[in-house]
Specification:
211 residues; alpha/beta; Rossmann fold; 2 domains; 6-stranded mixed sheet; 4-stranded antiparallel sheet; 6 helices; 10 strands
Length: 211
Amino acid sequence: MEEMISIENLTKKFGDVTVLENINLSFRRGKIYGIVGRNGSGKTVLFKLMIGYLKPTSGRVIVCGEEIGKDRDFADNIGIIIETPGFLNSYTGYKNLEYLANIRHVIGRQEIRESMKMAGLDPDSNKKVGKYSLGMKQRLGIAQAIMENPGILILDEPMNGLDHQGAADVRKILMRLRDEGKTIILASHNKEDIEILCDEVYEMDQGRLNS
């Protein structure tokens, strides 16, 4: 099974505070991985290092054979939800995604529409994002993460704000994407999400990793 991300001896410090210590981990194609742990355990910092939003103090992150921060600044085969998705409140959901899609110019109207429908949103709605519920914003974040058909998804609390049916819908989306060969890495405080979705689970505790 193809290795999509390799993390080697990864350490991150902010001043004298060690947030991650000597993390070694790999993620393979076609699997869902769960990262669990209390708030402040290092999960979000790990995700930001994997994407290239933060630079490691030591160690390496290799995505699809390229070292982040050396071969390229940011991984470009990753769809992400980290913390609360940020959108333009005066735009519709579709217009928000269109604006973001125009940055890289790799998809068009059809892919945006399909991603919104998959996430349970109406691409033709005139409702502005400022009027969206938290759950609708989370669905839009999922649509954004999948719209460019990335090989890897990194999702920090993807069920946040969703009701029971919404969470069930997103689980179905993620399992479908796994079956299509995507690599999915998610953090969740919801034990049910982890048990239903994940092929492998790792626990973060004070910046260290337990499997």
